[in-house]
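Q: Hi! First time asking for a complex rather than a single chain. Here are the components, and I think there are two in total. Is that enough to go on?
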Amino acid sequence: MNLISGELVEIYIAEGTTMGKVRVGGAFMRVPLTFLMETKVGDKILMESGVAISKVEVENLQEQ
Amino acid sequence: MKYIDEYRDGHTARVLSERIRDIVTRPWTLMEICGGQTHTIVKSGLESLLPKEITLAHGPGCPVCVTPLELIDKAIAIASRPDVIFTSFGDMLRVPGSSKDLLSVKAEGGNVRMVYSPLDAVKIAQQHPDTKVVFFAVGFETTAPANAMSVWQARKLGLKNFSILCSHVLVPPAMEIILSSPSNMVQGFLAAGHVCTVMGYEEYIPLAEKYKTPIVVTGFEPLDILQGMYMAVKQLEEGRYEVENQYSRSVKREGNVAARKLLAEVFETTNRKWRGVGEIPNSGYKLRESFSDFDAETIFEVAHIETQESPLCIAGTVLQGLKKPHECPAFGVQCTPEHPLGAPMVSSEGACAAYYHYGRMHAQSNLHKAV
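A: Yes, that's all I need. Here is the structure of the assembled complex.
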């Protein structure tokens, strides 16, 4: 049940739900973006149990 | 890997460690709430980088570990039925119930399936309209949005054969139980960053003020944790008790508003029993009445189940941070990841499993004692 991070590479609609294709290492996951509707391709996101729940602020990361 | 390796850099870890040494003047006990943080601490050997004044207590933040035995036994009873496909996250399958675990049910012919997401269970329900599909919905606030979404989606799809066995737990009430205990030793908390990505950290502010205890929302990489410790120790040394956010790259003060909205629609808070700790008021989620058609506990009538804990396991005191895993006489002897007596030895977030996998010297010293 640990969170997984990845890069959003595609946004599409499937059966009325906004979905994201996410690159995780060398693999891809497809997750609902229901809770992260403001994300865009190229964003780094965190996923839990097959659902995107948080965007990682890369600028903030580089400052830290 | 980008954005991960930066948080595992040894040189920066030593710099942060020196900063903690520079400011610490007296003993302090910090507790990391989340089992994921415990694993990072033990795996990366962070305790060896800390000055002797800092003591770490490992918190109850492993959802698999605190799921009450009654719920495990109820899951086993439901999964044993021939008309059920029982789905669960992988680490719940090996948690011992009173007499067996879910993997044993599978070995005996039960239709038990490991899924990565509750949404996968919804798909299984769509594919098997004549079979009852149950998902074992455990976890903290981080997992709750996916579980809420599964129920919401099942209703939208008109599924009558999907339900969840709900055992959600909430972090802030558990922190309050620890802080209000007469035997409490915790002077500062590293709050679980991933829980706060969903819930934000506003509900920690009254806790920090009431118990005069600093709370630092902290991430999960080694440098996150060292920085969180530095921020907590700095507050303690300066006599402050505030909520600070180390994990600002992922956590906003208000959390994920859309996820919280769905949680409020699907769940309501309830008293929840924590394995090894006891019942904590308002420390869990249950389905709202309007979603009770998806409540497996009601559908399968498993309310009355007798349970029996292992007399050797001290998981309760480990989960409250009162004892370390290797202080258990059964650790590494009668209790191992292959033959666990308690849930903390099973879960990927359990403190006992972390000590076993990354601190083998403790297991060996116990083995020597046993010999």
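A: Confidence is low (pLDDT under 50) at residues 363-371 of chain B. Let me know if you'd like any chain examined more closely.
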